[in-house]
Amino acid sequence: MYLGVALNFWYPLMTLFTASRKSFSVTVFLRARMANMPASVHTLLISAPEGQTQPYDPIVQAVKVLDLAYRAWKKGQTKSTM
After folding, report:
1. Domain spans of the chain?
2. What is the pLDDT along the chain (82 residues), one digit of tens a residue?
3. From which domain of life does this come (predicted)?
4. I want to staple 3 with a disulfide (CB 3.0 to 4.6 A). Which of 7, 38, 53, 55 is the partner?
């Protein structure tokens, strides 16, 4: 889109100004909300994980359980007195 030399010069600057103003407004709004939260809630929101740390997969869980059972069986087998 051709707006002329003067308008082409100012258009990106105005877009940048508008974006920074919106960003500043959102930041101020969020800080004001966080200032009214109790410290315990604020700490929990910051330190809470984004999602599950380990994916829940029944097959993976079954393999882990079988591996632990095998290790326990193997360990007990070496200490046998028979």
Report:
1. 5-78
2. 555 556 566 677 677 777 777 777 777 777 776 666 666 665 665 565 566 656 567 777 888 889 988 888 887 765 555 5
3. Eukaryota
4. 7
